Amino acid sequence: MRKYLAIILGSVLMAGCALSPQDVDVNPKIVVEKPEQTIDGVVSVAVYDDRISKSLGNRGGVYGKTNAINTTDKLPLALRSAVELGLRELGMTVTQSEEVAQFQLYLDELEYEVPEGNYVTQVDLKTRVRVTAISGNERFTGSYSSTIRERVPSAPSEKKNEELVNKVLSDVLNRALADPELEDFLAGI
């Protein structure tokens, strides 16, 4: 009996060292300062997830390759909602029509990395997006990136990972909408 109890206890302890896969919810926040110029055009927003892999990476630890971290399927919708809200805060009207200027956001990269080894001591996240705005024959294209490094005492919880992913996405979207060249283009719509 003691032998079986020791085996069960050992198995439970070993399982405690493993990290489970996670699916994080994305809900980035955009904080837009009112531009100096009037931006009051009408625009339609589309978001494209152009990443090669839909996985952000692995959470690390003892079984580092078996504990993927992913976003939920709502990622493009969450990005679109954030961008639409940001554009409205700039003064624009957002619609679904294809007859108006187009604002396209392409998510090219969203990665989650931890150092090699059995213990997770830091998390590095990086993201890159492209923005293409089209109005008639005029076109604006910009590329924006953001990187964060967070020192952690242990592998982050799902809640902490959601916070980190949303932080890096919020930062890159804020950078895009604060671009003076993009603002100038949108003001001419």
Summarize the structure.
With 189 residues, this protein is an alpha/beta fold.
The low-pLDDT segments are 5-17
H/E series: HEEEEHEEEEHH
Q: What structural class should be given to the helix and strand makeup?
A: alpha/beta
Write down the overall mean pLDDT.
Answer: 89
Quickly count the domains.
1
Helix content range: 25-40%
Output the strand order for the largest sheet: 5-2-6-7-8
Biggest beta sheet attributes = 5 strands, mixed
Distance between the termini: 77 Å
Q: State the CATH superfamily name.
A: ABC-type transport auxiliary lipoprotein component
Number of helices: 4
- What is the CATH class? Alpha Beta
Write down how many β-strands occur, each being a DSSP E stretch of 2 or more residues.
8
CATH topology: Rossmann fold
Provide the descriptors you would attach to this structure in a database record.
5-stranded mixed sheet, 189 residues, 3-stranded mixed sheet, 4 helices, Rossmann fold, 8 strands, single chain, alpha/beta
Describe what you observe in this structure.
With 189 residues, the protein is α/β, with parallel strands linked by helices. The chain has a single domain, classed as 3-Layer(aba) Sandwich (Rossmann fold). It contains 4 helices and 8 strands. The strands form 2 sheets. It has a 5-stranded mixed β-sheet with strand order 5-2-6-7-8, covered by helices on one side. It has a 3-stranded mixed β-sheet with strand order 1-4-3, with helices on one face. A hairpin with a 2-residue loop joins strand 7 and strand 8. Helix 2 crosses helix 3. The chain is elongated.
